[in-house]
Amino acid sequence: MSRRFLGGAAAAASAAALLLTFSPASPASATSATSTASAASAQAAPAGVAKKLFKAWLSGDRDAAALVASPSAVKTLFSYVYRAPDEFGGCVGNACRFVHTSVHMPGGLNGILMIVSGSKVAKVYESRHLTTPSAPAKYLFKAWQQGDRNRGLEVATGTAVKTLFRTKYDPAGVTHFFQGCTAEPKGYSCAYSYEGGAMLMHVRGSKARGYDVRSISYIAD
Q1: What SS3 class is residue 183?
Q2: What is the helix (H) or strand (E) element at residue 96, kind and residue range?
Q3: CA–CA separation, 47 vs 96, rounded Å?
Q4: How far is 69 from 44, CA to CA, in rounded Å?
Q5: What pTM did the predictor assign?
Q6: Which residue of 95, 112, 215, 217 has the lowest C-beta tally within 10 Å?
Q7: CA 69 to chain centre
Q8: pLDDT of the chain along its 221 residues, tens only?
Q9: Burial 49-70, CB ≥16 within 10 A → b, else e
């Protein structure tokens, strides 16, 4: 805003207006500012908790990890078979990711996902090294039964998880029977049959790298 010199009564009025503009915040505005700061702090909290656990893990300090994570979260994280992710991927709500940038791991997580609850990490999801084609197929099916997309992403691509979770698993619905895995041109097809058709999980990878489910298709009888 431009400033002008005003004389006499006009100057007095201008000075009064400036005093009103820059007067100390009223209790209401102070409360609003405090609320905004608290909200910002709450949003930042999950990242801080996740980073504390990640740091404790890098240091091999289980005691420090136990201060900021549940026992199951600590157990899962300390069993991670790959080298540590090299980048913090940020948080979406209370879900915080650490990702690999120079390599890509099996599944859709490409690293570690921490679910923060309050001042602790409640659960850890991670890229998994599964050495048989049937293992990721069975793991993904179990994740679907549990309604846990993050668990599915441990062993399957986002595309495969999205396809499978388009419908909710119905325990009272048709029964799925695992029929094993057969070789196909670029990997394996692991089948679950049910009355009226079958679901095929297309698995790729190797024993050394690990297998994951890349896509899903369906056939009808």
Answers
A1: strand
A2: strand 95-99
A3: 6
A4: 17
A5: 0.79
A6: 217
A7: 16
A8: 443 333 444 433 333 332 223 233 344 444 444 444 444 444 459 999 999 999 999 999 999 999 999 999 999 999 999 999 999 999 999 999 999 999 999 999 999 999 999 999 999 999 999 999 999 999 999 999 999 999 999 999 999 999 999 999 999 999 999 999 999 999 999 999 999 999 999 999 999 999 999 999 999 98
A9: bbebbbebbeeeeeebbeebbb
